[in-house]
Design a protein that fits this description.
3-stranded mixed β-sheet; YefM-like fold; 3 strands; 54% helix; Type II toxin-antitoxin system prevent-host-death family antitoxin; YefM-like_sf; plasmid
Length: 61
């Protein structure tokens, strides 16, 4: 996974979803902001699976 890039404004993310989908596949995660504040992230399938695995592991402890 590449280092995180700058957050993408939500409106830009929505208008250019295909571009950011490809970026998530390449980089792992695209952070989305609204009014300059982080509001969410779009993850590649690989990152999502990694997240779920870590979450299950922490719930088992």
């Amino acid at each position: 996974m590449s280092p995180p890039s700058r957050p993408v404004p939500a409106a830009t993310f929505g208008r250019n979803f295909g571009r950011y989908k490809d970026e998530a596949i390449a980089r792992g995660v695209v952070e989305v902001s609204s009014n300059g504040r982080p509001v969410g992230a779009y993850l590649s399938q690989e990152e999502y699976e990694r997240f779920c695995k870590l979450k299950r592991r922490s719930e088992d402890d």
